[in-house]
């Protein structure tokens, strides 16, 4: 990726770029809200699924849709999480102490590198979500940690060569 030297730009001007950048991402329909990492992951996952033969075609759900971010052409519900580290954001709407109602069929996790390019996309079934979820006490909701074990139990949709070499 091309490097750009921002060091000569004043702090005020640099901060001004942020709002312009957000507006441009929204105009291009890459994001819909100001949640950059989450929205970028949703966009990249849906784009990847839709352009890859053999994968379901996904349609983004309205922003206000609870628990899911996309629906397949077969009606399957997907929650999409993006990570730049090892832990997803939280999944709201699932009680801690009761048997949960099935909110989605699959979780798609988009792992982004430091340049916000896709490192990996994995798909996790509802059953494996229940198996691997962890309670985040501060957020009062569940999340997932990206471990070798969860990757092994997932459907790997995309991964860079460096991951394949480390098996």
Report what the structure shows:
The chain is an alpha+beta fold and 167 residues long. Helices cover 30% and strands 23% of the residues. The strands form two sheets. A six-stranded mixed β-sheet has the order 1-2-3-4-5-8. It has a two-stranded antiparallel sheet with strand order 6-7.
Relevant terms:
167 residues, alpha+beta, six-stranded mixed sheet, two-stranded antiparallel ribbon, 8 strands, globular
Global outline: globular
Work out the helix count. 5
State the separation between the terminal residues, measured CA to CA. Answer: 27 Å
Radius of gyration: 17 Å
Total strand segments: 8
* Strand proportion: 15-25%
Average pLDDT: 92
Order of strands in the sheet with the most strands?
1-2-3-4-5-8
Element-level helix/strand string: HHEEEEEHEEHEH
What's the SSE blueprint?
Elements: H1 11-27, H2 36-51, E1 58-60, E2 70-72, E3 77-83, E4 106-112, E5 118-125, H3 126-132, E6 134-136, E7 141-143, H4 148-152, E8 155-159, H5 161-165
Parallel strand pairs: 3-4
Antiparallel strand pairs: 1-2, 2-3, 4-5, 5-8, 6-7
């Amino acid at each position: 990726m091309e490097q750009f030297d921002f060091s000569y730009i004043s702090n005020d001007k640099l901060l001004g770029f942020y709002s312009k950048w957000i507006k441009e991402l929204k105009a291009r329909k890459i994001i819909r809200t100001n949640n950059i990492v989450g929205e970028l992951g949703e966009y990249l996952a849906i784009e990847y699924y839709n352009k890859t033969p053999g994968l379901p075609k996904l349609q983004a759900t309205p922003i206000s849709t609870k628990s899911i971010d996309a629906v397949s052409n077969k009606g399957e519900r997907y929650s999409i999480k993006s990570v730049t580290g090892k832990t997803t954001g939280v999944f709201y709407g699932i009680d801690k102490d009761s048997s949960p109602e099935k909110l989605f069929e699959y979780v798609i996790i988009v792992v982004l590198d430091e340049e916000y390019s896709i490192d990996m996309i994995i798909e996790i079934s509802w059953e494996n979500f229940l198996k691997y979820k962890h309670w985040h006490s501060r957020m009062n909701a569940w999340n997932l940690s990206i471990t070798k074990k969860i990757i092994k139990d997932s459907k790997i949709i995309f991964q860079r060569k460096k991951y394949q070499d480390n098996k």
